[in-house]
């Protein structure tokens, strides 16, 4: 204790406990790599406070926009499996390896992109190039749209999976108008705070940037 000059085991009975200062909580490596025009949104909260996240566009993203490479640990066995995410493998030095992401500090933001369940909701295609995996947009992505991915045809053969083909825009028949679902709240990927509009979220994120 600096006040009474004694070395004590535990708290000083005369001057009381120390004031404990905690380190600031920082986002994971994966969240820090998220491009500024994308955002993470919590889609579901499961048991044990496990968050199911999705990646959404904050502005229009043009067709043929490339993201990557996907960051993960090369492994002969997949230690972390999520049925909502793509299983990815690469060919390196003659061997076939999984891109494993057991936690958010082992990967980049691409680990949060969910797989497309059908042709209509697919916005990205995954493929291998020079031993790395990249995602590229197959059509313009509108704001508030979730980025969802499936394998390119050649990569699907490599992964021994079925291919989902995206029709050219000229071949797509116009669909009848449907009622839009209510927009979910925007969630800050740094602290988890929710906002009704993107403008409010953006102004809140400026505070995080100023602090950094």
Automatic annotation (TrEMBL):
Keywords: Metal-binding, Transcription, Transcription regulation, Zinc, Zinc-finger. It holds the Pfam family PRDM2_PR. One of its GO terms (cellular component) is nucleus. GO terms for molecular function: zinc ion binding. Residues 186-212 form the C2H2-type domain. It comes from Peucedramus taeniatus. The keyword Metal-binding applies. Residues 38-152 form the SET domain. The gene is Prdm15_0. This is PRD15 protein.
């Amino acid at each position: 204790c600096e006040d009474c000059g004694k070395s004590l085991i535990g708290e000083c009975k005369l001057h009381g406990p120390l004031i404990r200062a905690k380190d600031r909580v920082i986002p994971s490596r994966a969240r820090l790599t998220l491009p500024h025009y994308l955002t993470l949104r919590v889609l579901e909260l499961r048991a044990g406070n496990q968050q199911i996240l999705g990646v959404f566009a904050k502005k229009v993203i043009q067709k043929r926009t490339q993201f990557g490479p996907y960051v993960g640990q090369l492994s002969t066995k997949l230690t972390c499996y999520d049925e909502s995410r793509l299983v990815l493998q690469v060919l390196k030095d003659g061997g076939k390896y999984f891109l494993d992401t057991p936690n958010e500090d082992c990967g980049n933001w691409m680990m949060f992109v969910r797989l497309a369940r059908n042709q209509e909701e697919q916005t990205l295609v995954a493929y291998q190039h020079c031993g790395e995996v990249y995602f590229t947009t197959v059509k313009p992505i509108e704001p508030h749209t979730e980025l969802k991915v499936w394998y390119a045809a050649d990569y699907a053969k490599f992964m021994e999976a079925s291919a989902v083909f995206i029709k050219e825009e000229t071949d797509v028949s116009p669909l009848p108008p449907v009622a839009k679902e209510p927009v979910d709240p925007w969630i800050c990927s740094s602290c988890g705070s929710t906002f009704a509009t993107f403008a409010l979220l953006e102004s809140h994120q400026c505070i995080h940037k100023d602090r950094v």
